[in-house]
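Blinded run. Sample ID left blank on purpose so nobody reads anything into the name before looking at the predicted structure. Input follows.
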Amino acid sequence: MDKKKIDRINELAKKSKSIGLTPDETIEQMELRQEFLAEIRNDVKNQLESIEIVD
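Blinded prediction complete.
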């Protein structure tokens, strides 16, 4: 995920804590979080698949 999207996630999180989000911003935040989590899951899966156990 590019830095611009991560910055937007952080911006929305800060706004959510301070003044709240509009319904459109809430949807955007959920979509960005889902995209971020999907990338994390994919990275972890790839890393686990590349592990080779040697006895």
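Unblinding after everyone has recorded impressions. The domain at 3-49 is CATH 1.10.287.540 (Helix Hairpins).
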